[in-house]
Write a structure and sequence with these properties.
mainly beta, Lipocalin, eight-stranded antiparallel β-barrel, 2 helices, 8 strands, 14% helix, 59% strand
Amino acid sequence: MKKVIILSFLFISCYSVERDCIEFRTGSFEFSTLINDSIVKSTFIRTDNYEIEQFKGVKDSSTIRWVNECEFILTKINPKTNQEKRPIRIKILRTYGNSYDFEYSQVNNPQKINRGTVNKISD
């Protein structure tokens, strides 16, 4: 029994998740999510300092502040509501091919964490 536990621990501890976040710092991206039983898509262009998103025909811009190689804060440039004034923390959890998995939450509300996947369309 001890051998099984030790082997399992060694196998799990050797597994590491790929996080090549630099590849996703800039470019054109697509994000899909489920809202009210419908899958909706948004596209966005990210530069070193800005992110411009298009969702349902409406463009919205945010500033980007990189916390580290795999984590950044988005702050809307022209928020229309108090909700939009709150910055969003985004942390890239895993990268693979032209995609990455991430989690996001409002900076002041870390208890409500959501997850998603983004696909890179072009550089």
